């Protein structure tokens, strides 16, 4: 757990890879996605489920990716990366994956899988990950957004940093508005 926390918060996320389209089938609370991409050096064939359209306190994903090195005579590193937009103004608290990190700038959870393969070889990677989320305005970390959190916000009023949820540079009424939307009482 501590390692996952460290990884999620302190490590810069991997840069984006070449994008490709996936086909999505949406059920009530889950989304099934599948797709593949091939070029002269590699192919990637992926299928996964997640709750990306119904994320509240938790994001989960389960999937499989086949990575194939299509080079004729060279070993090759084949990578697959999944980028999932998280709801605005939430932190990723916990995760069980060292393959993942959260990009605060883009608001995307980034998971990357890769392996070095001999010419013509394929490796299948399965994953099943769950990430806990919490609202940014739970400033005291007790799991709720209450008067205690408003007290902390007001104590920071006009200041930069903690409590500046929208990154405007200071704690102001826009940050209070975010807190009220996330209010649990
Ligand atoms: Ca709180």
Describe this structure in words.
The protein is mainly β and 185 residues long. The protein folds into 2 domains: 2-135, no CATH class; 147-181, no CATH class. 15% of the residues lie in helices and 42% in strands. It contains 3 helices and 9 strands. The protein has helices spanning 2-10, 147-155, 173-181, and strands spanning 23-26, 31-38, 42-50, 58-69, 76-85, 90-95, 100-103, 108-117, 122-135. The strands form 2 sheets. A 6-stranded antiparallel β-sheet has the order 1-2-3-4-9-6, with helices on one face. Strand 3 (42-50) and strand 4 (58-69) form a beta hairpin. The chain is elongated. The model is unreliable at 1-10 (pLDDT under 50).
Number of strand elements:
9
Number of domain modules? 2
| Portion in helices | 10-25%
Helices and strands, in order, run as HEEEEEEEEEHH
Ranges with pLDDT <50 over ≥5 residues?
1-10
Structural class: mainly beta
Q: What is the subunit organization of this protein?
A: single chain
Largest sheet: 6 strands, antiparallel
Q: How much is the average pLDDT?
A: 88
Rg, nearest Å: 20 Å
Distance between the termini: 29 Å
Question: What's the tally of helices?
Answer: 3
Bound molecules: calcium ion
Outline type: elongated
Q: Give the strand line-up of the largest sheet.
A: 1-2-3-4-9-6
Residue share in β-strands: 35-45%
């Amino acid at each position: 757990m501590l390692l996952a926390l460290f990884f999620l918060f302190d490590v810069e996320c991997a840069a984006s890879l070449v994008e490709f389209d996936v086909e999505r089938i949406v059920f009530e609370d889950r989304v099934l996605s599948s797709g593949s991409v091939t070029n002269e050096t590699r192919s990637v064939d992926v299928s996964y489920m997640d709750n990306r359209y119904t994320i509240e306190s938790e994001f989960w994903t389960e999937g499989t990716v086949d990575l194939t090195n299509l080079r004729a005579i060279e070993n090759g590193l084949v990578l697959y990366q999944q980028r999932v937009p998280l709801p605005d103004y939430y932190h990723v608290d916990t995760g069980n994956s060292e393959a993942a990190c959260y990009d605060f700038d883009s608001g995307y959870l980034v998971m990357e899988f890769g392996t070095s393969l001999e010419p013509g070889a394929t490796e299948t990677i399965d994953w099943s990950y769950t990430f806990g989320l919490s609202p940014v305005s739970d400033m005291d970390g007790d799991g709720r957004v209450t008067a205690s959190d408003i007290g902390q916000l007001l104590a920071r009023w006009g200041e930069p940093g903690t409590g500046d949820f929208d990154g405007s540079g200071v704690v102001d009424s826009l940050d209070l508005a975010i807190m009220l939307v996330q209010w649990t009482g």
